[in-house]
Amino acid sequence: MTKFSNPTVLQNETLKLRSIEEEDIPVLYNLIYGSGEPEWKKWDAPYYPLEPHTLDSYRSHEHARKERLADDEPDSRLLIEVDERIIGTVTYYWEHKPSLWLEVGIGIYDPAYWNGGYGTQALTLWVDHLFRNLPIARVGLTTWSKNERMMKVGQKLGMKLEGRMRKCRIYEGEYYDSIRYGILREEWNKLHHT
What are the pLDDT digits (tens) for 33-58? Predict the structure, then answer.
C-alpha cells in the first residue's frame, strides 16, 4: 500500500482522518468483521449483506482500491481516529464519474462512539477536503429512513433533502425509504467558509 508518497491527514481538536497503512488493516478488519452480527451493519445498509472476507482477501481488497485511484485523485477511504484509536472510516465513491457525481459515506464501527458528534465532525472534514481537492459541484449522501442518526448528520452538515424513494428498501420484513441528501459547493462554502 505504497501508492501515496504523502499520506493524507486531516484533523481537528477531537479526531483525525488519515490514510490507511498496512499495519492498520488487521485492526480495521477486526472492527468490521470481528463479530458475526456486527451492530454497525444493522444501520449501514443492512439490506445488502456484508461482503465476506478473510484477513488476506480484505488486505487484497484494500490494495486494489488504492490501485484503482487515478494519480490525481485523493484517497477514497480514510480512517477515523479518536485518541489514536481507530473507530471507523470515511469514504467516497463515484455514482457517475464522467459527470463528477460523487457520494460520501461513513462507518463508525464501535457503538461506544455513536451519538458523540464524531460522525458530523468526520464528515465535515471529509467533505471540505473533497471540495478542496476535486473539481466537483456537489457532494451527496445516501441513507435509509430507519437510520435517523445519519439523516441528522446530513442536516447538520447543511445538506438538503434531494430525494426520497418511498418503500424501496426491505429490512426485517418492513419497508423503508431510500433518502438522498446533497450539498453544492457554493452552499458548502457559504456555510463553512464565511
Answer: 987 788 999 999 999 988 889 999 99
